[in-house]
TrEMBL record:
<protein>
    <submittedName>
        <fullName>DoxX family protein</fullName>
    </submittedName>
</protein>
<dbReference type="Pfam" id="PF07681">
    <property type="entry name" value="DoxX"/>
</dbReference>
<keyword id="KW-0812">Transmembrane</keyword>
<comment type="similarity">
    <text>Belongs to the DoxX family.</text>
</comment>
<keyword id="KW-1133">Transmembrane helix</keyword>
<keyword id="KW-0472">Membrane</keyword>
<feature type="transmembrane region" description="Helical">
    <location>
        <begin position="52"/>
        <end position="73"/>
    </location>
</feature>
<feature type="transmembrane region" description="Helical">
    <location>
        <begin position="107"/>
        <end position="128"/>
    </location>
</feature>
<dbReference type="InterPro" id="IPR051907">
    <property type="entry name" value="DoxX-like_oxidoreductase"/>
</dbReference>
<keyword id="KW-1003">Cell membrane</keyword>
<dbReference type="InterPro" id="IPR032808">
    <property type="entry name" value="DoxX"/>
</dbReference>
<feature type="transmembrane region" description="Helical">
    <location>
        <begin position="6"/>
        <end position="31"/>
    </location>
</feature>
<dbReference type="GO" id="GO:0005886">
    <property type="term" value="C:plasma membrane"/>
</dbReference>
<feature type="transmembrane region" description="Helical">
    <location>
        <begin position="79"/>
        <end position="100"/>
    </location>
</feature>
<feature type="transmembrane region" description="Helical">
    <location>
        <begin position="140"/>
        <end position="159"/>
    </location>
</feature>
Length: 176
């Protein structure tokens, strides 16, 4: 019972944090910039089809966080979180080193590792999977899902343009 309660607390806290991050990207809630700004931000990093990747990032965070918090369709929620955290590390944080105080990958790495551990483990007694009698085959679902996650993230990173697009000019700016 104590272990299941600990798993529940971990799932709910991480899940709610990820839901919040997804809501920032998708809807501009909680101080976020919304889908348009997320799309522009990803375009500035050279991602092709930036709106698609902005939607994928927001949905992975929001939907993955929701599944994770509820313990539903385990391990799909943890895999979605792993995907977005690996992408965040590669696109945003890697060049800043490890420590978050310098913009590094520390926070994203911790979330990815926690999601991986939880993905390999059971969602516990206090989960919708347990209540509904859902049990995806483990560990096969996790390992196959992880391979798909790594392929998708690699595809996104490898499809980047060599030179990121310049920020769009406003109508009043003259070309130099």
């Amino acid at each position: 019972m104590t272990m299941d309660l600990g798993l529940l607390i971990l799932q709910v806290v991480i899940g709610l944090l990820m839901i919040g991050h997804g809501a920032q990207k998708l809807f501009g809630w909680f101080g976020g910039q919304g889908l348009r700004a997320t799309t522009e931000w990803l375009a500035s990093m050279g991602l092709r089809a930036p709106r698609f990747w902005a939607l994928m990032a927001g949905l992975a965070e929001f939907g993955g966080g929701l599944l994770f918090a509820l313990g539903l369709l385990h391990p799909i929620g943890p895999l979605a979180i792993i995907a977005v955290m690996i992408a965040a590390i590669a696109l945003v944080h890697w060049s800043h080193g490890l420590w978050i105080s310098k913009g590094g990958s520390e926070y994203s790495l911790v979330l990815a590792v926690l999601a991986a551990v939880m993905g390999l483990w059971s969602p516990g007694a206090y989960s919708l999977d347990r209540v509904l009698g859902i049990a995806l085959p483990q560990p096969q679902t996790f390992w196959i899902g992880l391979i798909l996650v790594l392929v998708a993230v690699a595809f996104a990173l490898l499809s980047r343009q060599r030179q990121p697009l310049a920020a769009p000019r406003s109508a009043g700016q003259a070309a130099s």
